[in-house]
Amino acid sequence: MAHTIVLTNQKGGVGKTTTSAAIAAGLARKGYKVLAVDMDPQGNLGFSLGVDIDKGASIYEGLKGDATVYEIIRRISDIDIIQSNILLSSAEATLKGENRDLLLKNLLAPVEKLYDYIIIDTPPAFNILTLNGYSAADYLIIPMSAEILSLVGLVQLKETYETVRQSVNPQLKIMGIILTKYEKRRKLSRDVLEMAGTVAEQLNTKVFKTVVRSSVAAAEAPAHGVNIFEYSAKSAPAKDYGAIVKEILRIVEEDETNGKKDE
């Protein structure tokens, strides 16, 4: 059964999609079967992994029931992906029904046993798409850049997380906060790292030991339609994301040992 991880932050520009792509690619490089799911109408996850997001069926058709999950999965390198595009922006109005917050969970159910990990990228807002991601997930990862404004919205995220746990997904767990765009020489980065630790305690989680250092390579890779490992394997972000993938695997292994998730 796949371990499903949702990347979430209601503030944009924090490296959420870059982190989603890097985690998916990093897990695949280690031999795991990975499905990446783009729940953001901007379609940036698919684009950054080299998908022509204007061609083929997308997550929108899947959520509406116009296509099966098998019909919307595409193979990109060693990752399977369900792409998104601007059509998904109408989801709030068009996806209706009593269980509309479970549409993604139900859509993915037939293929959960085919993958080791499912990585879901969500939009930088709280809406029905984000809620679907939370409802389908085992874990939340919160990327935040080393900037003060990155802390904005985390209080609301805590409330949303607790609401989902109390209703549709009591097993949901916040795996941790990943600090991105980190510059060791900047006092602000160090200050935000310290504040992130305080926020993590309030969320009953922790900050990942590895921070993602700021680098032009992380910004350039999506424009070339490749992940950070393929674009610049020796860059600081590639090394950092590689270490983060190891942290994720260790956390999942510990949870399995402690009996968090039945196989």
Record keyword descriptors for this entry:
263 residues, Rossmann fold, seven-stranded mixed beta sheet, 14% strand, globular
Describe the structure.
There is one protein chain. The protein is an alpha/beta fold and 263 residues long. Helix content is 42%, strand content 14%. The protein is built from twelve helices and seven strands. The chain has helices at 16-29, 44-48, 59-64, 69-72, 91-94, 103-108, 128-136, 154-166, 187-202, 216-223, 228-231, 236-257, and strands spanning 3-7, 34-38, 73-76, 79-82, 117-121, 139-145, 173-180. The protein has a seven-stranded mixed beta sheet with strand order 3-4-2-5-1-6-7, sandwiched between helices. The longest helix has 22 residues, at 236-257. The chain is globular and about 50 Å long.
Question: Secondary-structure map with pairings?
Answer:
Elements: E1 3-7, H1 16-29, E2 34-38, H2 44-48, H3 59-64, H4 69-72, E3 73-76, E4 79-82, H5 91-94, H6 103-108, E5 117-121, H7 128-136, E6 139-145, H8 154-166, E7 173-180, H9 187-202, H10 216-223, H11 228-231, H12 236-257
Parallel strand pairs: 1-5, 1-6, 2-4, 2-5, 6-7
Antiparallel strand pairs: 3-4
Concise summary:
The chain has 263 residues and is α/β, with parallel strands linked by helices.
Please write the string of helix (H) and strand (E) elements.
EHEHHHEEHHEHEHEHHHH
Individual helix count? 12
Q: For the CA atoms, what is the radius of gyration?
A: 17 Å
Rounded mean pLDDT is: 91
Query: Per CATH, what is the topology?
Result: Rossmann fold
Q: What count of domains describes the coordinates?
A: 1
Oligomer: single chain
What is the terminal separation in angstroms?
Answer: 6 Å
Label the structural class: alpha/beta
CATH class: Alpha Beta
* Unreliable parts: none
Beta-strand percentage range: 5-15%
Please list the strands of the largest sheet in the order they lie side by side: 3-4-2-5-1-6-7
In total, how many beta strands?
A: 7
Q: State the fourth-level CATH superfamily.
A: P-loop containing nucleotide triphosphate hydrolases
Helix content: 40-55%
Shape: globular
